[in-house]
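Predict the 3D structure for this chain.
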Amino acid sequence: MGIASLIIGILSLAGLFLAFLPGLGYLHWMTVALAVAGLFLGLAALARRKKEAAALIGTICCGLAATAGAVILGIGRGVI
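Done. Predicted structure below.
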């Protein structure tokens, strides 16, 4: 689960930057949803008491992507 969280975190951060291209603003919505799912996976992996670096880094990446995406959607950038 930790590696899945890491992969989702990397994809979420990449999607966050891709969404700034013209016409791809809707990606912010999908990025936030994907980041929240990855955040839950990372937290579940950390709760198993496995001190896995991938789970920790994935949780951090997903948390950053979810927070940044929510702020961007909050200011109204995620429409188009």
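Residues 2-74 form one domain.
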